[in-house]
């Protein structure tokens, strides 16, 4: 198979911390992933469900810890005038790529392997995956963050593959990035300690001085690669259109995966 990433693409990625690959997945693949995600959500057991909002994420400790090796649902609350209207699905994760045959087939497909083996990873493996729905008029903002904060290795190796299952626009919550921010040191980590989850600072938490964030609108089927130290976020979905995305996070298995990371797999990673 011809290389999907050119040398110019790789240089851009290394300099800027992201790369946008257009028309990576076709309509059939996207339809299959969306239908399968719907099936998984509709068939979640009571144990696999939990209310979720970004402000309460640390309070859902055990549910998060359990999800490392399975498929669990996470929900967000819709409020109007501070009145709770209802709970709606936010995402499923965090081992869909290994626990479901349809997602496994896509995640370990030749086209994914093609991309991954052109990245600066010696022994790449998928450490987690999540299918994010960002429902119309409900899907919440995801605040600025670096993925390596949550999936820390020495040396740093976390890399995200973000697939647009629906069109992602500035109105419905496409990715927004700070180019070149991956060149700065990681400032904090999200760790587990005695089954409690918390953030710890690695450096003085000086104010971010990044300027000119760039929105990355994507058409369905586009793939965006993110360096684990790149600052990025997505806005809430303000439209009547969904913004589904499938996200895989990779690490280099030659790097040391930290024992304090919140996500600890009991199942060995498969090589890509």
What are its keywords?
15 strands, Jelly Rolls, alpha+beta, 6 helices, 272 residues, 4-stranded antiparallel β-sheet
What can you see in these coordinates?
This protein has 272 residues and is of the alpha+beta class. It has 6 helices and 15 strands. The two termini are 16 Å apart. The model has no long low-confidence stretch (mean pLDDT 91).
How would you summarize this macromolecular structure in one to three sentences?
This protein is of the alpha+beta class and 272 residues long. Helices cover 18% and strands 31% of the residues.
What is the fold's blueprint, element by element?
Layout: H1 7-16, E1 18-21, H2 27-42, H3 61-66, E2 71-80, E3 83-94, H4 96-99, H5 101-107, H6 110-116, E4 124-132, E5 142-145, E6 153-154, E7 159-164, E8 175-177, E9 188-193, E10 196-201, E11 214-216, E12 223-227, E13 232-234, E14 245-252, E15 256-257
Antiparallel strand pairs: 1-12, 2-3, 3-4, 4-14, 5-13, 6-15, 7-12, 7-14, 8-11, 8-13, 9-10
Oligomer: single chain
Under CATH, the topology can be stated as Jelly Rolls
The unreliable regions are none
Beta-strand proportion: 25-35%
Average pLDDT taken over every residue: 91
* Strands side by side in the biggest sheet: 1-12-7-14-4-3-2
CATH domain class name: Mainly Beta
How far from one another are the termini?
Answer: 16 Å
- Biggest β-sheet description: 7 strands, antiparallel
Give the H and E element order. Answer: HEHHEEHHHEEEEEEEEEEEE
Task: Please tell me the total number of domains.
Answer: 1
The CATH architecture comes to Sandwich
Tally of contiguous helical segments = 6
Rg over alpha carbons: 18 Å
Shape: globular
Question: CATH homologous superfamily name?
Answer: q2cbj1_9rhob like domain
Percent of residues in helices comes to: 10-25%
Secondary-structure class: alpha+beta
Give the strand tally. 15
């Amino acid at each position: 198979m011809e290389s999907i990433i050119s040398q110019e693409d790789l240089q851009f990625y290394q300099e800027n911390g992201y790369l946008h690959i257009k028309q990576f997945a076709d309509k059939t693949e996207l339809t299959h992933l969306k239908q399968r995600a719907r099936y998984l959500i509709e068939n979640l057991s009571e144990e696999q469900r939990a209310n979720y909002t970004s402000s309460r994420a640390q309070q859902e400790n055990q549910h998060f810890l359990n999800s490392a090796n399975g498929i669990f649902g996470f929900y967000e609350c819709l409020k109007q005038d501070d009145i709770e209207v209802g709970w709606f699905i936010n995402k499923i994760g965090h081992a869909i790529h290994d626990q479901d045959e349809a997602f496994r087939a896509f995640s370990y497909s030749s086209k994914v392997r093609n991309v991954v083996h052109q990245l600066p990873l010696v022994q790449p493996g998928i450490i987690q995956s999540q299918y994010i729905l960002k429902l119309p008029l409900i899907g919440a903002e995801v605040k600025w963050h670096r993925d390596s904060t949550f999936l820390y290795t020495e040396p740093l190796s976390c890399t995200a593959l973000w697939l647009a299952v629906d069109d992602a626009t500035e109105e419905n919550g496409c990715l927004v990035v700070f180019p070149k921010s991956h060149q700065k040191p990681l400032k904090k980590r999200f760790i587990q300690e005695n089954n409690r989850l918390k953030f710890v600072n690695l450096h003085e938490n000086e104010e971010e001085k990044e300027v000119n964030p760039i929105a990355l609108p994507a058409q369905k089927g586009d793939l965006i690669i993110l360096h684990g130290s790149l600052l990025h976020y997505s806005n809430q979905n303000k439209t009547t259109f969904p913004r589904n995305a499938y996200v895989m996070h990779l690490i280099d298995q030659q790097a040391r995966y930290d024992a304090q990371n919140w996500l600890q797999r009991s199942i060995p990673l498969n090589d890509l």
